Hints:
The protein is of the alpha+beta class and about 140 residues long.
Amino acid sequence: MEQADKYITESRPHVGSAEDVARIMRPITQDMTQEVMFVLCLDTKGCVSHIHEATKGLLDRSQIHAREVFHAAILHASSSIILVHNHPSGNPDPSSADIRCTKKLVEAGKILEIKVMDHIILGRKTEDRKKDYVSLQELGQCN
Length: 143
């Protein structure tokens, strides 16, 4: 897969919140018409050392396996990762498949001792939805 590091506009940006992740990833995902899963590899200080495009899916879904997610994390000696994918429909609410996938990847990360800090789903703001993203950590799904 193509690497997304070319999209990092600042050197090793720090992520301390879901909003930080959304700010970094919005420009990358905003015009995508397919679901794409990215892995943000973090160092021990919570700075992004690498952004990896793990999978590119169909129009409305992406297949993701632990090997694609953790391969980049292992190569970059990451202590933790953040998963990010887009919903081309604009609705960032997680599907049941998103939640199942997150839980499986959290468990795989525990085995590898690479913490999955969050899984951010990006969409678009609407009058009813003030944020253009959903954090599965905030929903209690990354434990």
